[in-house]
């Protein structure tokens, strides 16, 4: 009898994980898979006239025109997002390292300060930069003394990249900080005992152990940055527009849902491919920080 | 005409100045329309979805009493629900399209599309005919706004407010007065010229400078204007395409000159006399926002009563004193003078009451049919980098 009860309990237990998983699965199904399927269907539709409902007819032409017409905008978006990600690593890593190793009792406060900008809306932070970098602003007028009166920061690619870097910086610092925090720094002492230089210990011990943080941070910065359009809109010029700008315009101004959907799918596919390649190089083990 | 309420009024209206930050009102307004219904919770007779800050409110400085909405409810016994949910012509259209195209009514029974968008609703059969016999005060309307090209029979729309697009410039940066569109292409202003994302105003001004009329537009006719714009973008002459936020660009010296809207500059030039507005020699555009009853809406008689109310010059003047655009109603100028003080000063403004010479120099866009409009929008998006 007792053995019977045990197997029953086991059998019940077999379903428990699925029960626990179901909220997440249902959520993903409803709010991720279904919308992506709808988007995919829309991307293969055509509109008989401008304000008509799109009809599904395997219109792969939407994809070829996404590449032929907007290929350069895609490239620009990825170059800007990639540059912003690299800059975020270059600026964010030393900061996270310093907080994790030298922060002492101020650690929590310092990490809190990293998050503080989030209390202001993303949009307002971006518009604030357009005020700070304005042509008549003392910062720019001073630089004009050096670089000539045509010098400006706003409406250049660097303004857009700078905006992206600034706006997504916290997403880089936090995961790097968490992975550095976990490192037992006695390992560096051990490395020193074994004759390693400080730099050697960092390169061979600390850096590899913190790579999962760099990987997670890069994804968190690169993905939203590649699809962003606000920075291009407020800090850029007509020549620095990103793919998000195009999608927004296609959806809301031109009502070209099929083309907009195709552009979104292409963006998703390219980003996924890039992430897969990137994870091959950096590895995702220990990503669960 | 993404959102043509001046920033200054937005700031004073909400006290939302965040440490000297400069905020584009359209964006903030987009974060949620405020519901200013003064009626109770029961269904309203008139449900007006309008642009932000486009009517006087109780407690406005220029009019201390109850405000137009309360006064209307008192005198008519009708309930009005007034919502500032109309932020952008295209976005609003995208929002209501699913219902209207399926033949279902939307919640508001009165909306405020700009004339060209109103034309689209009419062409698609998404507008109700107005009970014009119940709007006797429509006789007070400016003749230029009666039966406009967007509504040739005048059966579907009546104007709400009107304004002009011309050139706004910062004389401190230009160092000289600007009088014509060609001045914008002066190499001295390279990278310091702004255009509006509102296609009709940007292309309209450039086309008029090339002698192209706006009344019967076709894409082929406008190709030279688009080509000119493309050329200037490629050269780097044009710095950005903006909505209402061009006012910040002008103030901060990012723009030497740009295409802009009259109402904004009226406000801006008060505190910064270097900022000027001019209708270029070749002409400016005249736009207006309409009142339109979407298909399937109920209570059109109450809507007519509201329209009749706001076309009474006394009530219209109260609105003008606050919103400071061109009123569609004749006699507002005299009423403003009677109000005295700041309101009376508005009566003398050329930007609110353009004289015959100015009016003769303004053009309104004719209707663009669906296929033509698509060509315009596509080319414009391509040039502006969208």
Provide a concise account of the structure shown.
With 289 residues, chain A is mostly helical. Chain A has helices at 2-43, 61-102, 107-115, 122-132, 138-147, 157-181, 186-193, 198-227, 230-235, 243-252, 257-282; strands at residues 45-46, 55-56.
Please give a structural write-up.
The complex is a heterodimer of chains A (289) and B (386). With 289 residues, chain A is mainly alpha-helical. Chain A folds into two domains: 1-43; 61-282, MetI-like (MetI-like fold, Orthogonal Bundle), CATH 1.10.3720. Helices cover 76% and strands 1% of the residues of chain A. Chain A has a two-stranded antiparallel ribbon with strand order 1-2. In chain A, strand 1 and strand 2 form a beta hairpin. The radius of gyration of chain A is 24 Å and the shape is globular. Chain B contains 16 helices and ten strands. In chain B, helix 7 (199-209) packs across helix 8, helix 8 (219-235) packs parallel to helix 16 (370-383) and helix 12 (313-323) crosses helix 13 (332-339). Mean pLDDT of chain B is 86; it is low at 5-41. Chain B starts with 6 loop residues before the first helix and ends with a helix. Chain B has two domains: 7-162 and 287-351, 3-Layer(aba) Sandwich (D-Maltodextrin-Binding Protein, domain 2), CATH 3.40.190; 163-286 and 363-383, D-Maltodextrin-Binding Protein, domain 2 (3-Layer(aba) Sandwich). Chain B is globular, with a radius of gyration of 20 Å. By secondary structure, chain B is an alpha/beta fold. In chain B, strands 4, 5, 6, 7, 8, 9 and 10 form a seven-stranded mixed β-sheet that branches. Chain B has a three-stranded parallel β-sheet with strand order 2-1-3. The chains are: A mainly alpha (289), B alpha/beta (386). The interface between A and B is large, with 36 and 39 residues.
């Amino acid at each position: 009898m007792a053995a019977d009860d045990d197997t029953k309990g086991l059998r019940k237990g077999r379903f428990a994980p699925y029960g626990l998983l179901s909220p997440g699965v249902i959520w993903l199904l409803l709010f991720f898979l279904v919308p992506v399927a709808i988007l995919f269907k829309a991307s293969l539709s055509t509109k008989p006239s401008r304000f008509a409902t799109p009809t599904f007819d395997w219109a792969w032409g939407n994809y070829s025109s996404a590449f032929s017409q907007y290929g350069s905008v895609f490239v620009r978006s990825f170059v800007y997002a990639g540059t912003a990600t690299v800059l975020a690593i270059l600026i964010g890593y030393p900061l996270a390292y310093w907080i994790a190793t030298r922060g002492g009792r101020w650690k929590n406060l310092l990490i809190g300060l990293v998050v503080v900008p989030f209390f202001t809306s993303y949009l307002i932070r971006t518009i604030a930069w357009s005020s700070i970098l304005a042509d008549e602003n003392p910062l720019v007028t001073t630089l004009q003394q050096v670089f000539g009166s045509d010098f400006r920061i706003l409406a250049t690619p660097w303004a857009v990249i700078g905006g992206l870097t600034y706006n997504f910086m916290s997403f880089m610092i936090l995961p790097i900080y968490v992975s550095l925090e976990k490192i037992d720094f006695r390992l560096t002492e051990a490395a020193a005992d074994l004759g390693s230089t400080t730099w050697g210990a960092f390169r061979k011990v600390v850096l590899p152990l913190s790579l999962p943080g760099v990987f997670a941070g890069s994804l968190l910065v690169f993905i939203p940055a590649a699809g962003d359009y606000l920075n291009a809109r407020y800090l850029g010029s007509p020549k620095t527009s990103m793919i998000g700008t195009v999608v927004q315009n296609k959806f809301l101004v031109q009502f070209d849902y099929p083309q907009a959907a195709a552009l979104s799918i292409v963006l998703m596919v390219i980003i996924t491919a890039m992430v897969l390649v990137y994870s091959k190089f950096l590895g995702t083990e220990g990503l669960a920080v | 005409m993404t959102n043509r309420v001046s920033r200054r009024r937005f700031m004073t209206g909400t006290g939302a100045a965040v440490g000297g930050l400069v905020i584009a009102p359209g964006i903030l307004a987009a974060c949620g329309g405020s519901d200013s219904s003064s009626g109770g919770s029961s269904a309203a007779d008139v449900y007006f979805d309008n642009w932000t800050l486009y009517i006087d409110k109780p407690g406005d400085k220029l009019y201390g009493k109850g405000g137009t909405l309360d006064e209307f409810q008192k005198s008519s016994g009708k309930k009005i629900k007034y919502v500032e949910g109309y932020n952008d012509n295209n976005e609003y259209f995208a929002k209501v399209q699913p219902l209207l195209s399926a033949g279902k009514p939307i919640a508001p029974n009165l909306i405020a599309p700009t004339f060209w968008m109103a034309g689209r609703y009419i062409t698609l059969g998404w507008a109700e005919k107005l009970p014009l016999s119940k709007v006797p005060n429509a006789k007070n309307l400016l003749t230029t706004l009666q039966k406009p090209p967007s509504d040739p029979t005048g059966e579907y729309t009546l104007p709400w407010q009107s304004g002009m697009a011309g050139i706004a410039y910062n004389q401190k940066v230009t160092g000289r007065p600007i009088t014509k569109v060609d001045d914008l292409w002066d190499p001295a202003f390279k990278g310091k010229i702004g255009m509006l994302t509102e296609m009709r105003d940007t292309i309209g001004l450039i086309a008029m400078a090339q002698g192209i009329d706006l009344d019967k537009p076709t894409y082929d006719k406008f190709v030279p204007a688009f080509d000119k714009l493309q050329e200037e973008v490629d050269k780097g002459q044009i710095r950005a395409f903006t909505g209402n936020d061009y006012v910040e660009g002008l103030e901060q010296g990012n723009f030497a000159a740009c295409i802009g809207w009259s109402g904004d500059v009226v406000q801006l030039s008060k505190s910064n006399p270097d900022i000027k507005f001019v209708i270029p020699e070749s002409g400016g555009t005249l736009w207006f926002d309409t009142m339109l009853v979407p298909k399937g809406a109920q209570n059109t008689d109450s809507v007519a009563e509201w329209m009749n109310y706001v076309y009474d010059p006394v009530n219209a003047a109260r609105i003008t004193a606050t919103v400071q655009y061109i009123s569609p109603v004749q006699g507002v100028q005299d009423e403003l003078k009677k109000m005295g003080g700041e309101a009376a000063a508005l009566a003398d403004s050329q930007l609110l009451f353009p004289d015959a010479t100015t009016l003769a120099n303004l053009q309104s866009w004719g209707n663009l049919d669906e296929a033509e409009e698509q060509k315009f929008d596509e080319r414009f998006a391509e040039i502006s980098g969208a």
